[in-house]
Amino acid sequence: MKRYQLRERFRDLKKDPSGLLAYFALRRLIKKDGMNFRPDDGFVIATVPPDFRPLSYKKACHVLLNVDGDEWGLHREAVRLASTTKRTKTIEHELSIFELRGLRVLLATHLNEVPKEVRFVAKRILSLSPPLAEDVHATRRILGMPTLSSEQVDVLIGKPESIMLAGVMKPQWCADDTRALIELEHLDEEAPSLFEVPGFKEQKIWARGLVKDIGLWRQGKLGWKDIGQSALVSGPPGAGKTYFASALATALGFRLVQTTVGVWQTGGYLNDMLAAMRRSFDEAKGSAGAVLFIDEFDSIGSRPSRPTGHPNETYWQVVINEFLSLMNAPGEGVIVIGATNFPEWIDPAILRAGRIEKHFKLGLPDVTTRAEILHHHTGNALPFESLIELADDLEGKSAAALEELVRSARRRARNEERELQLRDLRAVMPERIGYAPEELFRLGVHEAGHALIALTLNCARSATIEIRDTFDVSPGSYTRGRTTYDLFEYNLPTETVLLNRIAMSLAGMAAEAVVFGDRSLGSGGLVGSDVEQATSIARRLVGSYGLGETPFFFATPEELEDERMPPALEVEAMRILREQYERVLGILSREKDQLIALASEAVAHGKVMIERDAGLVSESETAVD
Predict the structure, then answer these.
(1) pLDDT at 187 over 60
(2) What class has domain 194-361?
(3) Is the pLDDT of residue 458 over 70?
(4) CATH hierarchy code of domain 437-614
(5) What are the sequence ranges of the domains in the chain?
(6) Of 107, 221, 244, 334, which residue is least crowded by CB atoms under 10 Å?
(7) Is the pLDDT of residue 312 over 70?
(8) What sign for the dihedral angle of Cα 148, 151, 156, 158?
(9) pTM for this structure?
């Protein structure tokens, strides 16, 4: 290249510091290896350093090879990227063995972005090294910026491209900038590695397989299509869905690209939403390894099983079709994690194999996991046995709530200028109020009713009742008694099984009526409550499963959540609920003495388990009345 041509090209390159850094790295490689890039001498494949953009090296190659990046034709094809995120039709289409004419340099993030046939044809395959200290000094000099000290430049070496550019482009460094730059790199570390945090046992098994497969993928020994690339995580708010995605990204060494369906919808118009969806996928695809975390996943919509022609249906039909297209090919190095509180609202086509391949249900942590979470966030500085005692009073708290508890305790310790102590945690524990004796006994009766009916009607092998003598007064944390079951699993539930489940749900309320002649509000008022579960089963039984007096299909179980059935079906569902409630009243009235004895034992001991084969339950009422 003639000197005046080099000056002209550098005039443009000076506007792009990342291109300058790449230019010096490429020039050093050429000098070291004696490389030449003559058009008649084949082409070279070069992989860029981790956390650097191939586009920067492409601009530098245009200067070194004396080709015009804006020219259409063969010269424009001299330097190409192995993977492009552009969705519109451009001259830079996907690379294949059939389209190598004029190619001199092929830039890739990972070698496995390059088709194996193209790898075979290449003259050489090179790995580009990250910029050195001399490159930083040269770039600052060309940009007309003051020289940095050796200590300042050392802070930049080995950092991702974005961090290095932040240091290179800052005109003047002050005394605190070195420390601030180091902290800047850690601001994006929202979570430690998934393998370092408590809980997530099932998810860790999956993640370990991913780590192994991604290692093979990075070595070019495994195609990306052979790796399980997506998962859905569901659970109540605070269960750790976002935290899981962030910790997974750290474990994989990937970037976290975070978005929500709500953000996609903010433009209002269909084209705006489609464009926002594409941008999220393109951002992940251009990250050289990313976890694309999509929250509010259920809000993507669902196509109706029986279209009505309403304009709103057409809107969501287009949205879901585009989303399915994106999910079919999310890009090399992209793991998609969807998060939702309502997995049943998601269109079934999204959840099929090849798109969302795994479904992890996240629940609130048990007492041991709560203690482990506290132990982790306190830096393992407090005795685990003491944390178990505290965790026992934190039932129903999410991982996020436990982390906030530790932050509050640390703040208390800082205010007194000392290290965190166990008393700081005790001081910020939620306020608890004790039940009156008669309230405790009512809780015991309610849960004993559930347990006895579950075993009597052959719904479960065993039932465990837990009664606590205090409750957390925090909003949404009012916990009463609880019964857990070892339920029988039915691959093909019958009408009898469904009716028994309704009866089991209504048994707590019925037990209170039998013993006290009065019922509390503890069975209803919430989604997921006893009465809500019973009502939901009864409506599905007659409106979807066709198991009512007249076999009839009105809607899918999901659609019934938001639709009112014809009056005749609603009346029949009410009749089923009334019959099952009366049935349970009859059973528990005959077993009143056993009901009271079991409730008393649960209150006295706090926890009691009964088993069907232990002779505690009468077998006389196992048939459906």
Answers:
(1) no
(2) alpha beta
(3) yes
(4) 1.20.58.760
(5) 3-127, 133-186, 194-361, 367-429, 437-614
(6) 221
(7) no
(8) positive
(9) 0.57
